[in-house]
Write a structure and sequence with these properties.
about 200 residues; alpha/beta; Restriction Endonuclease; five-stranded mixed sheet; three-stranded parallel sheet; elongated
Amino acid sequence: MVVILTRNSVRNEWVNVEMGAAFGLHKLITPVVSDLDSRKLPSIVRALQVVRYDRVGAYFKELGKRVERTSSHIDLSVPELRGTDSTYEVRVANEFNFRRIVFDRHPKVQGPFRPDFAIPSSRKPRFFVEARGNLTKESSVGWLNYNIRSIRSSYPRVKMIVISRRLTANTRRLLSKYWNYVFADSEIDDLTELLRSSQELQE
């Protein structure tokens, strides 16, 4: 994905939404910067390989040469997202990117269970967030509660959060026994506000 960033577009809501979606899908993003000081770029953009507008021709020429050299090894198939959980996880990642919440996807943690997000990072987590498309069945809740207990002893100060597109009053009650916060999809603004407030206190 190539994004043209100017003084105007860098503040455009839809440009940031599209970049957030690409981040959530782990797409390669190439920002092309014009009439903009690199110091004013969002932090998530500064971490990428930024191409100046006056060098974009040379950049794509070199990229074309690389493609020619490696074309026989390139997999051009488009991966599909399968299942409601993976699709919903992307939706939550897009929200985090749009709200400028710093996170790691699928962090490596001690124990067999790997949450979807560590905030702000897997090295110094303050929150673990699990995003689930459907938590209306008690069996799914029981599996989640069992797994979150398995890592609590290793991360006693980390707050555990679960958000789901579908919850019932009973599954919310069962989750609340082991998770610090339980959010329905309609409460995603409350979740991001909680995370933003914590992030701002650390800055």
